[in-house]
TrEMBL record:
The lineage of its organism: Bacteria, Pseudomonadati, Pseudomonadota, Betaproteobacteria, Burkholderiales. The keyword Isomerase applies. It catalyses: [protein]-peptidylproline (omega=180) = [protein]-peptidylproline (omega=0). Keywords: Isomerase, Rotamase. This is Peptidyl-prolyl cis-trans isomerase. Belongs to the FKBP-type PPIase family. PROSITE patterns: FKBP_PPIASE (PS50059). It comes from the Bacteria.
């Protein structure tokens, strides 16, 4: 039998690909299929680790649709990441004077630099309740990928 020379995705591969994420309720979250393909380096944090793992071993030219179970794409929901933030902390670490409404994604300055974000779940006179879980944590995801090139 002849040995296959088709490149396959490895843990440090540089890829050109199209991909699409669809939530379990059928809403498209992101897609590159109607635009230019994405290029990324595996292992560099550009995709969630679980999505990178799903790509390993796929051949160049392959078109695959993967069903990732709840919690397997962006991790399980962590109740400890739903936290009360004081109004003072909110004012100090976000855009001053911003009027937030429930459902907003709010970016905060992290201690020591950097940014993180949470979704506003509730608001009252003493503060705000934020969910710092990834918005897709705990959800089943359909991950469609077409591998165009592997370096």
């Amino acid at each position: 039998m002849p040995h296959s020379t088709t490149p396959v995705v490895t843990s440090d591969a540089y890829l050109t690909l199209h991909y699409r994420l669809v939530s379990n309720d059928g809403n498209e979250i992101i897609s590159t299929f109607s635009n230019s393909p994405a290029t990324l380096q595996l292992g560099s944090g550009q995709l969630a680790p679980e999505l990178e793992s799903a790509l390993l071993g796929l051949e160049e030219g392959s078109h695959t649709i993967l069903e990732l179970a709840a919690g397997n794409a962006f991790g399980p929901r962590n109740p400890d990441l739903v936290q009360q933030v004081s109004l003072e902390t909110l004012q100090e670490n976000s855009v001053y004077g911003e009027k937030y409404v429930v459902g907003d994604l709010v970016e905060f300055s992290a201690p020591g630099g950097g940014q993180f974000a949470g979704i506003l779940r509730a608001f009252n006179e003493s503060g705000a309740l934020f969910d710092f879980n990834h918005p897709l944590a705990g959800q089943a995801i359909t991950f469609e990928v077409k591998i165009i090139g592997i370096l």
